[in-house]
Give the backbone structure.
Amino acid sequence: MRSAAWAVIDLDALKFNLQKVKHFAPDSKVMAVIKSNGYGHGICEVAGALKAADAFAVARVDEAVKLREAGFEQRIAVLEGFSDIDELSLHYQFKLEPIIYTDQQLLLLEKNRSQTLSHCWLKIDTGMHRLGIDPELFQAFYERISQLSAVSVMTHLACADELEHSATRLQMELFNRVTKNCPAEKSVANSAAIMEWPELNVEWVRPGIMLYGVSPFSGKFGEEHGLKPVMSLHSKLISIKNVKRGEAVGYGGNYLCNNDCRVGVAAIGYGDGLPRQIKSGTWILLNGKKVRIIGRVSMDMITIDLTEQPEAEVGDVCQLWGKGVPVENIAESADTIGYTLLCGVTRRVQMIYQGKS
Ligand SMILES: *Cc1c(COP(=O)(O)O)cnc(C)c1O
């Protein structure tokens, strides 16, 4: 039985978007970022569709173990690496490639030098000030880690999605200066940089959001970059009623009908990951045509103005995001970004996979 709220995941679109990455960065190897359950799409299904990537990246060691246990043998980088011996042991056991960003990690590696990592990634903080070692410490770190493991070098950009921002250039200059004489392979670019900062497409690129067909740039849509949306989120109408002009709809009663109004109720709400902050007037699709959400999003339902679709019936399908109704749109209405909406789809939503994995 199909759940009232379901997401269709188009695996062919994932593959298509991976080809787009290669088009933007033809000389780079691709580390496909599939953290947070493959940006909400299902980590193993996404990994299956992205087998042609040169490596995967996840945030946490348990995500990587899940991939290994599902049989994936590709290289896997763990963006948060390890912070204790148990997590480090899992890296040895499952041939995972930790990101190294503190001296505690280095000390732990040196203490366990009887075991070897297949590879690791040394991360430099070039200005984001989240993870990464201080640039002045790079040379010393690099020399010590090289004794223990094959190593590549990376950094992460804070503002690559803001094209006018000076930070990206400064980060790039610092990275280039610090690693100038270092023979290791390097990696800098996330999706925004892959598409807009071609000089940052060095040996490895690390696309996330663009693989899922979504734009990292505010005010833009994935389709404008030639990407295909991967997830389409759906529900169906479970009730239709007439509401008189001046009457209120939904919790708080803060939406008042301007005219006599046909109100449809669709079975999807914040319990499914639809943000409660979505504003009245945000459009979605019903039977492939635009309709507007009115009133507040509740846990299990939304209310929709059906005035422009008098023929609508209970059971009709609405689409909250996906092809023809960009997730970026609804994200903006909720003062957030497409990333959070995709990651926030809850377990109640049934995932339906289409296309070849
Ligand atoms: C999440 C992440 C990425 C991917 O970022 P997108 O903006 O989704 O392309 C790349 N690198 C690191 C270190 C990340 O944490």
User: Anything to note?
Assistant: The first strand starts at residue 6 and ends at 10. Residues 33, 35, 79, 156, 190-191, 206-209, 216 surround pyridoxal-5'-phosphate (CB under 6 Å). The chain has a mean pLDDT of 97. The chain has two domains: 11-216, 231-354.
